[in-house]
Write a structure and sequence with these properties.
Blueprint: H1 11-25, E1 38-44, H2 50-60, E2 63-69, H3 72-80, E3 88-92, H4 93-101, E4 135-148, E5 171-173, H5 177-187, H6 197-210, E6 214-217, H7 223-228, E7 233-237, H8 238-247, E8 251-254, E9 261-268, H9 276-286, H10 289-298, H11 306-311, H12 314-319, H13 324-329, E10 331-332, H14 340-351
Parallel strand pairs: 1-2, 1-3, 5-6, 5-7, 9-10
Antiparallel strand pairs: 3-9, 4-7, 4-8, 4-9
Helix pairs in contact: 5-6, 6-14
């Protein structure tokens, strides 16, 4: 998202501005001084209300430039290129480990983030960041099955039910390599983090069998196809299923009996961030209970902010809860190391 500044008076300044603007249009947000009133955010789409961004801008005078991505892989590739100018990004936990190992992240100054005290202990001290030096939890959640009960004739309990010919060209699934391959691994009784080549090949064959039922891969707004009735069911983010049900009460949520994918997203600051203090100020603002509550009201993902949860209406808070037995069967993604190449190869073969 390019910056736009107004200058005048000299041809030199005009030419300089034109040069900077051309650079910005190519995605380069570097060059700003550390005390500049700018914040460049890189985040998932459908994940942060514009009202929250505006409130932050109004309070601080800091201009927020907001870019989005559709997958952790896309986010990582962009940041690996370097000199992006991004001050803050949101990464799933297992990607923090990858980014730390590649020395891509700046250490946080927690004195600038006092509201971190509102985060529940169970979301801190992850394997990827044991001392919480590089990341702050933002949201957590799960990938669930959602279906339209007006269009589906059978009971849905898990992934196996979605293989039914009834769903031919009638499913929307997340465009997420680790989630969908992980679902197939769970269906086969394997870990969703398997690094075994034989198990992954079995998952690929299962996914090839499943593919004729897939109408669309969509991580940005899978609820759209569900609400419109263009698909009968799907594997979607939990919040997308909740939002779809608000618009179409026929949409129901199922926690897959084979075990669902669980995730936690976290704020991180790239090592070359030009406005690090602004990023820390933004994180602290997001962690205010009333602000975090507003985010959950619009995007009902799991919220690690314990003080914000107390402010939510009962129906919203209950929609975020997951039965203990379903959580126990779920699995968080971890860094699978060199096996990432196997996942990527399988995904490429499935998508092409």
């Amino acid at each position: 998202m390019p910056f736009k500044r107004k200058f005048g008076l000299s041809v030199f300044v005009i030419l300089f501005l034109a040069s900077m603007l051309l650079t910005a249009c190519g995605g380069d947000k570097t060059g700003g001084s550390s005390d500049e009133k700018v914040l460049n955010v890189f985040n998932w789409s459908e994940y942060l209300p514009t009202s929250v961004i505006k409130q932050f801008e109004d309070e601080t005078g800091i201009k927020v430039n907001y870019d989005t991505y559709s997958s952790n892989e896309e986010m990582l590739a962009k940041l690996q290129a370097g000199n992006t100018g991004y001050d803050i990004a949101v990464a799933s936990t297992y990607f923090i480990e990858i980014m730390r190992n590649q020395d891509m992240l700046a250490k946080l100054n927690k004195e600038n983030i006092p509201n971190i005290k509102n985060i529940g202990d169970s979301f801190l001290g992850t394997q990827a960041d044991p001392n919480d030096e590089y990341s702050v939890p933002y949201m957590w959640g799960k990938a669930v099955i959602a279906y339209n009960e007006d269009l589906v004739d059978k009971e849905i309990k898990g992934y196996a039910d979605l293989f039914d010919p009834e769903f031919k060209d009638n499913l929307v699934v997340l465009d997420d390599v680790r989630v969908i391959i992980g679902n197939m691994l769970a269906l086969l009784g394997y870990s969703q983090n398997s690094t075994d080549e034989k198990e992954l090949e079995e998952a690929k064959e299962k996914l090839l069998e499943f593919k004729p039922n897939i109408k669309a891969f969509d991580s940005d707004s899978p609820k759209t196809l569900l609400v419109s009735g263009e698909v009968k069911a799907g594997i979607v983010w939990g919040a997308e299923a909740t939002l779809a049900a608000r618009e179409n009460p026929a949409i129901k949520t199922v926690f897959p009996e084979e075990g669902m994918n669980l995730w936690q997203d976290n704020f991180v600051i790239p090592k070359d961030a030009p406005h690090k203090e602004n990023a820390e100020k933004f994180i602290d603002f997001i962690l205010r209970p009333e602000v975090s509550k507003e985010i959950s009201m619009e995007y009902p993902y799991g919220n690690p902010n314990e003080e914000a949860l107390k402010l939510l209406p009962d129906d919203i808070r209950e929609s975020l809860e997951v039965p203990e037995e379903d959580l126990a069967k779920g699995e968080y993604n971890i860094d699978v190391g060199e096996a990432t190449q196997l996942y990527d190869r399988i995904w490429s073969e499935i998508k092409n």
